[in-house]
Amino acid sequence: MKGEQYECATLVQVQEATTKLDVAKIVPLQLNDGGVVKDVENYVGVYNVSKGKFCAAVVPHYNLVQHKRYFDSFAEALQRLNIDYSMKVSQTGNRAFADIQFNNKNIKFDKLNEEFTTGIRLANSYDKTSGVNVIPKYTRLACTNGMIMTRSEMTLSIKHHSKMAEEIESFIEHKISQIINESADLQVWVSSCMGDSMEWMACCRIIEKLFSQLKHREEILKRLGISVIEIEDKKTKKKGITYVWDKKEEMKTTFTRWEVYNAITNYLSFGEQITPHIESIFQKKAEKLLLTPFAEMPTIEGL
Fold it and tell me: What is the three-class DSSP state of 160?
């Protein structure tokens, strides 16, 4: 289930929401060597003060970035730049996320008949599962699906032991401007997706390859009008699955890559079982489909 989320539209609201995020600190490490307690000199620890839990062992020059400082810095920069925005703040375990949408900064592709809002996803962790991340995020207005573009040149991931992690304010304004004003890659990707199609059963097999867990696959295929049915071979008694149309009168022979991609992002945006962390992982799978022609995608055997 999705965790608690805080919706903000002003700097004051962001600063209030981020006070509810976990705080961590760097602590010395010790080990018990046969009853003798010794200091660990070449590592220190990250300790989640709010949860009272150890997070990770890190090098002494590790730059711990507090969730609050990171998100507040972006909100302060948006206020300085006089950019109208909304921000949703959430956390999962030792990771925190902030989804920022720029209001009145839409991208419209008339020839594709598509329009997108622009935004940024911020991510930070106390357990080394992510660096200090800045990821472009677009929302398709036709269905409000969120699209996270991790392979864009505008994506930035800074490791916590980098000096840049100490000076996060120095790159923020540049990154905001870049994401708002650059959309050429998005137009190419969407156009390519719309022009690439494949037989519907082959599309099901590609989704099966990308999403091995049945519960996720069922939700994605449901958005295409397809159900997953369990079958059993009468001779071998071996169980398997097949795909059938929910409504035969609406059956299609092919899907475009854009249709399949949007089924995935719709589930990631609105599925009740999706946490921000799982969404980030699955958005990378969706992005692979966005950027890779059907003919080059791996499929499950048995087409």
Answer: coil
Q: Report the candidate in 176, 67, 198 with the shortest Cα–Cα distance to residue 120.
A: 176
Q: 175 and 152 share a domain?
A: yes
Residue count of the chain, please give it.
303
Residue type present at position 169: E
The candidate with the shortest Cα–Cα distance to 294, out of 262, 266, 258, 267, is 258
Q: Are residues 171 and 76 in the same domain?
A: yes
Query: Do 13 and 157 have their domain in common?
Result: yes
Q: Give this prediction's pTM.
A: 0.84
Tell me the average pLDDT across 92-121.
92
DSSP letter at 232? E
Give the C-alpha distances (Å, rounded to integers) separating 28 from 33, 45, 128, 221, 277.
16, 6, 17, 50, 29
Q: What is the pLDDT of residues 43-84, one digit of tens each?
A: 999 999 999 999 999 999 999 999 999 999 999 999 998 999
**For range 213-238, the mean pLDDT:** 89
What is the C-alpha to C-alpha distance for residues 93 and 26, in angstroms, rounded to an integer? 18
- Is residue 301 predicted with pLDDT exceeding 70? no
Same domain, 248 and 219: yes
Domain that holds residue 134: 5-19+64-183
Q: What is the torsional sign of CA 148, 155, 70, 170?
A: negative
Return the pLDDT at 268.
93
